[in-house]
């Protein structure tokens, strides 16, 4: 069923990943073999050990973020908070990809109510992750464009596998990252790097990302989660309440900005994405995917 | 005609350039020979090729920014926007100098109306250049102090020839860079570097400028424009509308700040510059120039 | 007299310095021999030479900041301003320590009036130092945690002796640096480094501090003051009025923020520090010191 195939593979940032992911998309079987995780009912595989939770995103083939995925992620983050977990490692259960970002099918010929819920849930995920009382470490085990990059940037620390790419590449697809994506990157790499990266829609290699501070450490293939656990052990030693208050001193102004403009941001997104030109461009892109 | 000579050579930032420019100023003939451009009626030589415009500043001897120059630059920037040009390369037609900055004669014993128009036009140039929908690349082919540095910093990308100097050196002349000069530098090199550079009035060598991110690339003498064209070809591939919106997300707050304070800023400048002490200092400086 | 001993050695940030300072604290005699300064009536030794003042902090054993020390520092800073001094070098007269930060005894079982005066005086010291019209250079001759780090960061330039440590390590002690500590660090090393350093309470080695821009230069043991004098000679050449105005353009927003919230900040501190949990933790810490 072609539409279903498109539905499962399309993703806002996929276009820029085509070359990198060629092997993955062409060979689903190989992909499944490489995965060491067993099939899960939901999109997230959550394991907890000594108050440290690991969320492995597991929505084939590229962890594209649709409404159901975001809802599950938001609820899981809330649950971990309530369970007084101390740390969270966010990673992917799929090979070569962390997350390909927002699911383009949520934005193509959308129904208004679902579209608004989709965006609102994305906001909720960010608010919860960026302001999380837990120590949050992204184990970026594969490519991480657009929304995948946002998830990474919202954590407290980023460890990336070598030879992948990461960045807010929305501009290259003809769309614009929302202001809170921009703010989140700004808080990590500063004004100049953000301005240039956003204008060009730059996808950085792991090493380039390290050199501008977009990630904090680069490790070998398959080593991100172990490295994250080791790093986590240092962070959870710090008195939690003081650490959380310190974190919020730095992040609260950025969080407050979205909270104050949540509705405006939804309206802006819904208006922008349903413009004729934007819809036509997405239609042509999806058409090109079907032909493959 | 001494006064005319002074008029043509004086410039706010010239003092710090005296040593570097010694050869240029002493030998006008050599300077003309080096220039490959023919005489132009205006102060700007504008050429356009494949939607990429090049503005070569051509006001001998040091591209000092007086009211007429700034008016021509403002109108040219407006015209290129209206012509739907995609890119702009800003460079100098003169050897060894990009621009020496504001013309000190606009500020010495000024008539109030012209003084206010001068400053207002400088604001307009900055607002138009910093917020330009075009991709803007500075090909910094020579020294670039004060106002010359501001023009460079307002572009999207900076390529500088080796062995020159660049910086906001106003402090060294006993004056103070206006807040929007400061904001523009802040957005490129951050708070700490801006604070130190502004306090000390630092002129950075090309290599130093590269190391703190004040320029993005350093190339050999005479290679800035070619390098700018090559860089430009990457930028104009990006979907223009999305790129412009992304740029404005980063720059609009800084632009809005001046727009809101335009009149206050003119009043402040007019009051500061006409103070007895400041006028006396400028008088003595001009006197010292005449004696040469 | 045990309590007096505790009083003289306790300091908010001391805990993290225990290993580094072991030798110092165990051997008061050795410490005195190393000091080349003679006994002073106050806590500060102030010398002035060619309009450059040097304040050597001299409150044994670790220059902990209590109300009397802060009052003397505030008055001294005011006096140097009134005397039209051009430059200030802030250093320590004690070996191996710049300042260990706020005196914990000011915060343990405090009388409300003194507690509020203590905090208000700390605010005054920072407002005066951060906004000082003088060129201010920190000659960081030893460890510089918490409040010691704040004093350093409030200067215009930082020269640190090798093989010591510096940082805002409040989080490690279970408390939280006030917002203006955070702002001051933010203005030096940017958002990302501040966020990480504050969350972890990181104490940076001299070389690490240099690599992230927390200090500007690292020199050998005993060379900080000479290096500061040499650096100072460059800064005082700059026209003073223009330099001061430039400095204030960068620092005034941060200063205005505390001025506007001075009372709120005192109330917040007084409420936070007198909480049962915080008091108990301090009590246990002081108890552990007495037993040594």
Automatic annotation (TrEMBL), chains A, B, C:
Main localization category: mitochondrion
Pathway membership, UniProt: Lipid metabolism; fatty acid beta-oxidation
Residues in coiled coil: none
Catalytic activity: (2E)-tetradecenoyl-CoA = (3Z)-tetradecenoyl-CoA; (3Z)-dodecenoyl-CoA = (2E)-dodecenoyl-CoA; (3Z)-decenoyl-CoA = (2E)-decenoyl-CoA; (3Z)-octenoyl-CoA = (2E)-octenoyl-CoA
A single GO BP: fatty acid beta-oxidation
Record's function text: Key enzyme of fatty acid beta-oxidation. Able to isomerize both 3-cis (3Z) and 3-trans (3E) double bonds into the 2-trans (2E) form in a range of enoyl-CoA species, with a preference for (3Z)-enoyl-CoAs over (3E)-enoyl-CoAs. The catalytic efficiency of this enzyme is not affected by the fatty acyl chain length.
Protein name per the record: Enoyl-CoA delta isomerase 1, mitochondrial
Compartments, as annotated in UniProt: Mitochondrion matrix
Organism, as annotated: Owenia fusiformis
Pfam family, one: ECH_1
GO cellular component terms attached to this protein's record: mitochondrial matrix
InterPro entries associated with the record: ClpP/crotonase-like_dom_sf (IPR029045), Enoyl-CoA_hyd/isom_CS (IPR018376), Enoyl-CoA_hydra/iso (IPR001753)
Similarity-based family: Belongs to the enoyl-CoA hydratase/isomerase family.
Superkingdom of this protein's organism: Eukaryota
Complex formation: Homotrimer.
Keywords assigned by UniProt, alphabetized: Acetylation, Fatty acid metabolism, Isomerase, Lipid metabolism, Mitochondrion, Transit peptide
GO MF annotations, alphabetized: delta(3)-delta(2)-enoyl-CoA isomerase activity
SUPFAM superfamilies reported for this sequence: ClpP/crotonase
């Amino acid at each position: 069923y072609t539409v279903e195939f498109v539905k499962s593979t399309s993703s806002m940032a996929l276009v820029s990943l085509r070359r990198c992911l060629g092997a993955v998309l062409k060979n689903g079987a190989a992909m499944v073999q490489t995965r060491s995780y067993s099939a899960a009912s939901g999109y997230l595989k959550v394991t907890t050990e000594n108050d440290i939770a690991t969320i492995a995103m597991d929505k084939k083939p590229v962890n594209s973020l649709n409404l159901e995925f975001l809802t599950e992620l938001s609820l899981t983050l809330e649950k971990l908070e309530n369970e007084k977990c101390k740390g969270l490692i966010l990673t992917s259960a799929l090979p070569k990809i962390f997350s390909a970002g927002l699911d383009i099918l949520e934005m193509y010929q959308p129904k208004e109510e679902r579209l608004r819920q989709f965006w609102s849930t994305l906001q909720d995920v960010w608010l919860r992750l960026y302001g999380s009382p837990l120590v949050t470490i992204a184990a970026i085990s594969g490519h991480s464009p657009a929304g995948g990059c946002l998830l990474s940037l919202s954590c407290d620390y980023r460890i990336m596998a070598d030879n992948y790419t990461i960045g807010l590449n929305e501009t290259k697809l003809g769309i614009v990252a929302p202001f809170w994506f921009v703010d989140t990157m700004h808080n990590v790499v500063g004004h100049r790097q953000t301005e240039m990266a956003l204008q060009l829609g730059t996808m950085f290699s792991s090493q380039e990302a390290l050199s501008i501070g977009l990630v904090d450490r680069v490790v070998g293939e398959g080593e991100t989660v172990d490295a994250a656990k080791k790093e986590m052990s240092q962070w959870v030693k710090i008195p939690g309440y003081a650490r959380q208050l310190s974190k919020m001193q730095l992040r609260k102004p950025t969080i407050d900005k979205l909270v104050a403009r949540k509705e405006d941001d939804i309206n802006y997104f819904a208006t922008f994405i349903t413009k004729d030109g934007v819809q036509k461009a997405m239609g042509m892109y999806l058409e090109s995917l079907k032909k493959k």
